[in-house]
Amino acid sequence: MVHKSADEKLLSDLRSFLGDRARDGDFELGLYSKDGSVLKGDPMIVCLPIDTEEVQQIVLACRKHDRPFLARGSGTGLAGGAVPVGDPVVIATAKMNKILDVDIDNRIAWVEPGVLNLDLSRELSPLGFHFAPDPSSQQVCSIGGNVANNSGGPHCLAYGVTSAHVAAVEVVLPDGRVTLLGDLTPESPGYDLRGLFIGSEGTMGIATKVAVRLTPNPPEVRTLLLDFADVRDGAAAVSSIIAAGLIPAALEMMDQRAIEIVEAFVNAGYPTEADAVLLVELDGLPGGVEHGVEVVRAVAEHHQVGSVRVAADDAERALLWKGRKNAFGAVARIKPDYYLHDTVVPRGKLVEVLEKVYQIADAYDLIAVNVFHAGDGNLHPILAYDADEKGVLERVQAAGRAIVTASIEAGGVLSGEHGIGLEKRDYMGMLFSAHDMATQDLVREALDPDGFANPLKVLPSGSRCSDSFGQHVPDGAWV
Amino acid sequence: MSPVGEVDQRVLEFANVVGASDPVTVVGGRTQWAVGGTPEPGTREVRAPIGIWSHEPEEMTVRCGAGTTLGELTEQLARHGQMVPFDMAPEATVGGVLSVGHSGLRRLRYGHIRDLVLQIRHIDHSGQIVSSGGPTVKNVSGYDLCRLMVGSLGKFGCIAEVTLRCLPIPAVTRWFTGFLDPFEIFNQMYRPSAILWDGNQVWVCIEGVVSDVAAQASLFDFEEVTGPPSLPTAGRLTVEPKELRGHAQKPGERWIAEVGVGVIHTDCVAPHRTISDVNLSLMKDLEDRLDPNNRLNPGRQVLVR
């Protein structure tokens, strides 16, 4: 990789207070050039601040030297939101990883953005609480990243996404001012800037402290595995479970290929001959959970379920979840690389869109594997490929666009939990009018009038008045 | 107009009614009309479209005109065993409730009403339609203008159409009362729907299947009642939930607090809460950008200066 030699003055300014935590070595720049997408950027300098004041100083230094910046958590996003374009300074939050305060009376924990999602819930568990959003990447994804993308996860079906679980965010604004958006009261005065900031993908500033809500651990949890000989029955069961008035804590689906590779990977006893499995979790008080299990059984039988397996204990439950949460890694068994998609369709259209996904994969000579949040219609088609194959990336990209188009045509949206980032930026026009996007841009400009924070993301360049740092996704951004 | 999701004719008509020039305000059920002050004299009053345009029980979503009353919404959804837990007066409108942005009585369990909003179409200062959010239950496509609209008292636009997330109506909803420590109830019960407290007496709403509700109620020495007490309406204070413990009664004041939430309904006028200078500058900037000629609800104030 060839990178521009860093702006020496900026680097020396940053080193004056960060020391060796301002880096421009090839190894680090390479490491921070990518995220969970297949895009690649070109960071100029990587900074590893330890507190709000350092983040503020970095932002001010960047402004002084007319350099954009980009905050980065663990880089697990799929839409390229953390891919550095426009030669920005990367502000990695990895060293801001402390749980600052657990306030049980307010049911709040103050955490730094680099705290990992699962670490937080593990820490809270002995107190009887957890942080409800649980993306599949929760072992490695950060709370700051969850805030940037308004992340979900299997359990957001019942508990809602990140925005519902964050009371306040301390933010370093793109002009270097520090402010608190939201507070611990139920209705903070003025407009809901907190709600606007969450999900803004780092384009409105950098979160430096987050007040997350604590959710009480449910007294009873039951996890069921249902298998179906026909994926259509499985999908119909999803709609019927919801229509029956049940909101499971999670309702996940895996297709035949996913079952096969996951089973080979974790040996959880998934039925490899099935066309689809549903992983259903019910939680709450014992009576409600028992009632839920009965409803799920009855619905499943109505839809020709093969078998219903109820996890007997926590160990078996953990094993079933291990399969689900490691599915993406298991894909490496069939192809070395994969491209993971994230769209949402109405539940009733799941089968129709799934069939289109298979057709699209066939048409582009790719392998599609489906593991997804069926309960809220959040599809995650995985296109497995080998990057060494000539021309494969063009096919992957074209197939990705076709999948997004099919989802939108079915009444869906562009993204469920990974945001728009870079990858879906130019698809925004599929969902929004030019005037819708211009309005969004007006709002963004109120927070970042000069376009310093994570430039070139979310909105297509045509709708922006303030792209000071270039107009297009750089050639060769796809790797 | 949005390239996908045909904009309803009634929204287009409403855009014409709102127009692009004179001062305008949307009237709902007038149940919370005084919040933020009343519009300047001479402001033209318009009404948002009404009616439930689609309810898909298996998607658990409902799309309606913003002028639809909660009474109509509740009745329609109940036919399919569903609800939107806004918990406001039946004559209040969906658009009005969202514009004011106060949460309902069962917030402890169901969260803030803003988290039930999936998509909003509003008419902006220039008379054009703006869509934000998306029709599905999960969505992070673009900036979340829906959340900005909730609690904005119509200063950013006239809400025309709303898509909301529905929830199943619980098998039973029961209210109990007793002279107990509300904080102990909050700590011991698993997700009650509401805990109200007047400094002396406690009212608790428990929902779920019959056996769970009975078991939860048996944890304390309760007596069953038909519903919540009447709430004082003159003032609405919001404090951190733990600050409720020390909330002192002013002589002659009657108040009822939502324990675990931090809302205090009082018969005294609540003081204005201040906004930090930085946030105030950002919020004013948003107002200037989204309503440059100050024609949307002039006189009404979200920002007390």
Which regions of chain A have little confidence, pLDDT < 50, spanning 5+ residues?
464-479
Number of domains of chain A: 4
Q: What is the overall silhouette of chain A? A: globular
Q: Which architecture of the largest domain in chain A does the CATH hierarchy give at level 2?
A: 2-Layer Sandwich
- The CATH topology annotation of the largest domain in chain A reads as Uridine Diphospho-n-acetylenolpyruvylglucosamine Reductase, domain 3
Query: How are strands sequenced across the largest beta sheet of chain B?
Result: 13-10-12-11-15-16-14
CATH class of the largest domain in chain B: Alpha Beta
Q: For this structure, what is the CATH class of the largest domain in chain A?
A: Alpha Beta
Assembly state here? heterodimer
Which labels suit this protein?
heterodimer; A: 479 residues; alpha+beta; Uridine Diphospho-n-acetylenolpyruvylglucosamine Reductase, domain 2; Uridine Diphospho-n-acetylenolpyruvylglucosamine Reductase, domain 3; Alpha-Beta Plaits; 4 domains; seven-stranded antiparallel beta sheet; five-stranded antiparallel beta sheet; globular; disordered C terminus; B: 305 residues; 2 domains; 8 helices
Summarize this structure briefly:
With 479 residues, chain A is an alpha+beta fold.
Explain this structure:
The complex is a heterodimer of chains A (479) and B (305). With 479 residues, chain A is α+β, with helices and mostly antiparallel strands. Helices cover 34% and strands 20% of the residues of chain A. Chain A has helices spanning 8-18, 26-31, 52-64, 117-124, 143-149, 156-159, 193-197, 231-243, 256-266, 286-302, 314-325, 327-330, 350-363, 392-409, 428-431, 434-447; strands at residues 22-23, 45-47, 69-72, 89-92, 99-103, 108-111, 129-130, 166-172, 178-182, 206-213, 215-216, 220-228, 250-255, 276-284, 305-310, 337-340, 343-344, 367-372, 378-379, 381-385. A seven-stranded antiparallel β-sheet of chain A has the order 15-12-14-13-18-20-16, with helices on both faces. In chain A, a hairpin with a 5-residue loop joins strand 8 and strand 9 (178-182). In chain A, helix 9 (256-266) crosses helix 11 (314-325) and helix 13 (350-363) packs antiparallel against helix 14 (392-409). Chain A is globular and about 65 Å long. In chain A, 61% of the residues are buried. Mean pLDDT of chain A is 91; it is low at 464-479. Chain B is α+β, with helices and mostly antiparallel strands and 305 residues long. Chain B has two domains: 9-168, 2-Layer Sandwich (Uridine Diphospho-n-acetylenolpyruvylglucosamine Reductase, domain 3), CATH 3.30.465; 172-266, no CATH class. Helices cover 21% and strands 24% of the residues of chain B. Chain B has eight helices and 16 strands. In chain B, the strands form four sheets. Chain B has a seven-stranded antiparallel β-sheet with strand order 13-10-12-11-15-16-14. The model of chain B has no long low-confidence stretch (mean pLDDT 94). Classes of the chains: A alpha+beta (479), B alpha+beta (305).
